[in-house]
Predict the 3D structure of the following.
Amino acid sequence: MKKDKEMIGVKEIARRANVSIATVDRVIHNRTGVSVKTRRKINELIQELDYQPNILASRLASRKTIHVAILLPAVSDETNFWEAPLRGIRRAEAEIKQYGVVVRPYFFDLNDKESFRQQARAILEQEVHGVLLSPSFVEESSAFIQECKQRALPYVFIDSTIPKQDNLCYIGPHLFQSGYLSAQLLTYGLPNSTDKVLVVNISREVDNFNYPQIEEGFRSFFKETNRANPIVRIDIRQTAYPSVQDELTRALHQHPDVAAWFVTNSRVASVARFLEGKGMADKFLIGYDYLPENIRYLKKGTIDFLICHKPEEQGYRGVMALYQTLVLSAGVEKEYFMPIDIITRSNYAFYRN
Amino acid sequence: MKKDKEMIGVKEIARRANVSIATVDRVIHNRTGVSVKTRRKINELIQELDYQPNILASRLASRKTIHVAILLPAVSDETNFWEAPLRGIRRAEAEIKQYGVVVRPYFFDLNDKESFRQQARAILEQEVHGVLLSPSFVEESSAFIQECKQRALPYVFIDSTIPKQDNLCYIGPHLFQSGYLSAQLLTYGLPNSTDKVLVVNISREVDNFNYPQIEEGFRSFFKETNRANPIVRIDIRQTAYPSVQDELTRALHQHPDVAAWFVTNSRVASVARFLEGKGMADKFLIGYDYLPENIRYLKKGTIDFLICHKPEEQGYRGVMALYQTLVLSAGVEKEYFMPIDIITRSNYAFYRN
DNA sequence: CTGAAAGCGCTTACAG
DNA sequence: CTGAAAGCGCTTACAG
């Protein structure tokens, strides 16, 4: 039960370089106070011997705590979507807290941009070494990010992104392809090429980067496969059910011949409820996210497919990406696209967010 | 950047119990040579202070290596399915080798039970603390497992299982539900309730636990949803393509009106090839596993859906389960069912095994 | 620019 | 049955 290979460590490098281990440590961490000559020699030895630092020993000896701030929408009556990323974040925290990483969450109200600004400010007032955020509000996020950049704080986007922001990485869905897949699945509910499709977007946010990309992918599928099905799109800006009901009633009045429904986000349960009320539960309906409400309708068959992008894993990977850079000084992928998972009433029980 | 809470450790417990840390260590690891009284006192303190051992320090101080043996089918010309679990195993190894865990793979030939026996013997001749295996051959696996049990070696099953074997855990698919889902998807290719379904089982193994369960789930779906579609099943015992072609030709001759095809394992590419040859690429075809051959046909549309059970993650989780018990002394779930993933040409690019 | 020494929280012979 | 001491591979003041 003895260790097979004696790994070489700082001690061995120090011996070979005729210096003390403290000097080796300085070189390893790019600290000042080492002559060019010595530094070069030690770096050569590190290369030559393929030195791998022992993270256990490193974290054990270093009494430092690394603080990671999390900036996410609060769970609300309207949606508990953000519970899942938070679970992933907690799981990551549990795994790496033994390495001296502390995770501190800050929540903002999705209906209140000011709350975002406040929480962002609160983060910067604390000691912080990295940030994980959902850039829900574009302008506010950009402002916050500028500040992070100045302080050389790495920041990670999850679930949605803002292009070209020097973020450490983006972890979330490939929205275009997600829409494309939804369209593919929807066609199973469209036996005839003249069957009409209704795309429903229920969201308060207007300047959202997400929906246009989903819709583009969605329409692309129809174009590429030469399907001529008419696609009608409606926007519902009030998310409470009565408003949704009103708008859907109006839409249905205008387009009584809709054969399949596609909801571009997790509000699909509202549409399911509406369809049930109209005795139209058999209509083909696709939407997003593994939420209790949605699963209820999926089980009953009112919702046919749910698309899901592993929100829990997004949270988990987001924290781990920061851990990779801050603790392990390792590189991370700039864009980590989540799988586009298909959930039906037959496989939902085994789904892992 | 200071550590927030001073965690309590062996030193503190020793101080409070008026003993040395060596004695505390003995109690923590249930070693002999401690008076009942002292042991009780220390255990009380551990409870009271909610002592959590520092794994970093523990693994650093302990110069021991833990050996995990892996017993899996070798990758062959016929199937490279087992590459994926091996990748997962390697990934787990990379993650935990810093904790002094060494993983040693042993491969057997799926066409040769004797090779399984040989490799099993080889494992037991080495120093080994835990085993991960795919119990492909029932009798041979049972014999091997008996030996493991006697030595109190924990063993984990992946991908398939043998019931009631005191295995540490099973990590793999819920086959019944997987067949059920396949049936649900297949019905999108069965517009009429009289459309005929062909279930194709291509496998050399006769006494396999897997296929009956898949088929049972498959038929259950039809029963539960009151679908009367005729289901025909054929078994092909020679896996080389010419034999498959012969058998399928014969089947097609007998059942020229088959509307949808379901292949119960990863050999679906053979059927896709056959259908293309017959100019029947448009037939609805579902099979298993994310293999390059299969993906090729999926992209072209010859295969409509692939079902996949994350083989890479099975390998990863299998090793981690052993790590959990052997290093962390933590519990693991007895049955960890993998998600039942649906892959189409629209989402395969983002799939993670 | 460099090194000696203490310490991180454990484990492990060894001595009694 | 118990303890003192060395050591795991690093980091961190501190001294020079």
User: Anything to note?
Assistant: The longest strand of chain A covers residues 66-73. DSSP finds 13 helices and twelve strands in chain A. Residues 311-326 of chain A form the longest helix (16 residues).
